[in-house]
Amino acid sequence: MLLPDIVTLSGSTRTGSFNAALAAHIARRLDALGASAE
Length: 38
Hints:
Elements: H1 2-12, H2 15-37
């Protein structure tokens, strides 16, 4: 589920900002999962 998103992020960002973008993306994913779980 995460792989296509990671591929998209890595293709559209540079290595320097990739980690920040990935962290923000994962945080949004976790927030969405937490919201749907409640």
